[in-house]
Amino acid sequence: MLQGAIINAEPSAFARARMRLARRTRRHAHAERPVRIILVRHGRPAISIAMRTSHREFRAYIDEYEAAGLDPESVPPEQLQDLVRELTAVYTSGRPRSQDSARALAPNAELIADPLFEEAPLASPRIPLLRMSVPKWAVMARVLWHAGYHPEIENYRRAKHRAARASDILMARAMDDGVAALVAHGYFNAIIGRELRRRGFRKTGSHRVQFWNAVIYELP
Fold this sequence. Notes:
Mean pLDDT: 89
Largest sheet: 6 strands, mixed
CATH topology: Rossmann fold
CATH architecture: 3-Layer(aba) Sandwich
Distance between the termini: 58 Å
Number of helices: 7
Number of domains: 1
Shape: globular
Radius of gyration: 24 Å
CATH superfamily: Phosphoglycerate mutase-like
Number of strands: 8
Strand content: 15-25%
Helix content: 40-55%
C-alpha cells in the first residue's frame, strides 16, 4: 500500500458537469411547477339556517353563527381530502367552524389560525315587521353592505385591503412550498380570489354558496 497517498479533494470535470446539470434540473423542475393556492369554504355549522326571523332575531343569529362549530355530520368530500392530503400546514380563521373544518379535512396538518382570514362581516338591516328566512336576510344584508350599510363593522374597502394582506401570506407560503391552503369563509375567500386573479393567478372552480366549496388558484 502506498503511504501518504494524497486524496484529490477537487471533483473531476465529469463530476462538476453532473453537479451543474443536477442544479439546472432542480431549478427547471421548480420553475415548471405551478404555484397553487387552495381556498376552501368551511363545512356546515352546527346551527339551523331554516328558521324565519325578525331583524332583531337575525342580529342575534349572526352572533350565534359566528360562535358555532362544525356540524359533526358534515364530512368533507373525499375528492377534497385527496387534494390536501399531502399538506403539512393549513391556514384557518379564528372562528370555530373554520378550525373544526380544517381539522376534519386535514387531520395531520398543522393549523395556522389568523383572524386576518375571518369572514367579511354582516349587519342586520333594521326593517320592522318583516320576517324572512336566514338565507334571505343574509343576501339582503350583503347587498346593503356593498351599498354602504356597515354600522360599526368593516366596510368593503377595508375588507379588500385585508384580502390583499391575506393574499400576501398565502402567496409567500405557496412560493416556498409550492402550495398553500386556506379553510375559511365563502365570501371573504371570493374577495381573496379576486385579489389573486389581479396578481395573475388562474382560477379553477367557482365561489359558490356551498359548504366545502373549493377553488384552486395557480400561478404558472
